[in-house]
Design brief:
- This protein is mainly α.
- It has one domain (6-40).
- Helix content is 52%, strand content 0%.
- The chain contains two helices and no strands.
- It has helices at residues 12-20, 28-40.
- The longest helix has 13 residues, at 28-40.
- The chain is globular and about 25 Å long.
Length: 42
């Protein structure tokens, strides 16, 4: 669904919810910020 974006690292349920809300790709700030959030979650 979102394999080529940072959304692709999210749980499938979250990916479906994002898609159902009409989003097709993350915003530029999401692209930049989310990798830091994923790294902090480890």
């Amino acid at each position: 669904m979102f394999e080529n974006t940072v959304f692709g690292r999210l749980d499938q349920k979250l990916q479906r919810a994002i898609a159902d809300a009409g989003y097709e790709k993350p915003t530029p700030i999401q692209e930049k910020a989310m990798p830091y959030l994923f790294a902090a979650a480890l």
